C-alpha cells in the first residue's frame, strides 16, 4: 500500500485538508473548514488540532502531516511569525504545540506559496528539474524558488516575495498586476480606447471576460495583457539574474491569462537577458490548479 500524508492548506477563507497518496497525488477524505468560524472561537490552533485528530483517527496509517500557511514563518519552520489573514496566531509555536498533542506524528510547516511550488515537483503533470522559480498570480503576486529540490529560505527564512519588488508607477509589482489592479487597469484603458472591443465600458470588466475577449483576439484585451506581461517580464528578469535559474512556473488564479501575457514576457526577457540565460529559458504554466495548496502541503512530508 502506498504511503499517505495529511496535507493541510490554511487560508484566510478556508482550511482545506485531505489524505494524499504519495505516489499518485490522489486526494481522499477531503474536508474544508471555515477559517472565520475557527477564528471566532479565539482558539484557532486548538480547532486545527481537533480537525487533525479526526483525520488521524479515520486514517491511523498516516504518520506525517504537512501544513501550508499564508504568511511568514520562522526559519526553523516551527513558529507562525506574520499571518496577515489570521493575525491572532502571530508568534504561535504551532509545530511544538501540535507535536505535544500528537507525539507519534511528524509535522512540517511552510509558507503556502513555497509549499505549492514544491508540490509541482512531486505531483505536477510535467517532470521538472531540481531548480526552478515559481510565481503565483492572483489577488497578489507570490513566489518561491526550489533549489536542489528544497525550498530556498533566504537568510531569515522568508525569501522570494516577488510581489513586493519595486515596479512601475511608484508601486510594488503586485500593486500593478494583482487581480484588483488588473481590473482597474482594464477599466482605465477601456475608458481611453476608441476602437472596437467587446469589453464593457461601464466599469464591470471581469477577469473571466478579459480572458474570453483575448481568446477572441480582442485588440484592447490583448493590449491590457501586454502591459501586465511587460511588468511581469521585468520582474522575472531580476529573479533570473539573481538566482541564475531559468525554469519558471506560472500559477495562481490569473494564470488563465498565461498565453496572452507571454508575448510581452518573452519580449522583455529577450531584451534584458544574455544568451547564457536564453538558451535554457523555459517558462510554463503550473499544473496543480486548485489542488496546489493541499498537494503542496503534503509534499513537505517527503
Summarize the structure in words.
- The strands form three sheets. The protein has a five-stranded mixed sheet with strand order 3-2-1-4-7, sandwiched between helices. It has a five-stranded mixed sheet with strand order 10-9-8-11-12, with helices on both faces.
- The protein starts with a strand and ends with a helix.
- Helix content is 40%, strand content 21%.
- The chain has two domains: 4-122 and 291-299, ATPase, nucleotide binding domain (Nucleotidyltransferase, domain 5), CATH 3.30.420.40; 128-286, Nucleotidyltransferase, domain 5 (2-Layer Sandwich).
- It has 302 residues and is α/β, with parallel strands linked by helices.
- A hairpin with a 3-residue loop joins strand 8 and strand 9.
- The longest helix is centred in the C-terminal third of the chain and has 25 residues, at 219-243.
Key features of this structure:
302 residues, alpha/beta, Nucleotidyltransferase, domain 5, 2 domains, five-stranded mixed β-sheet, 12 strands, 40% helix
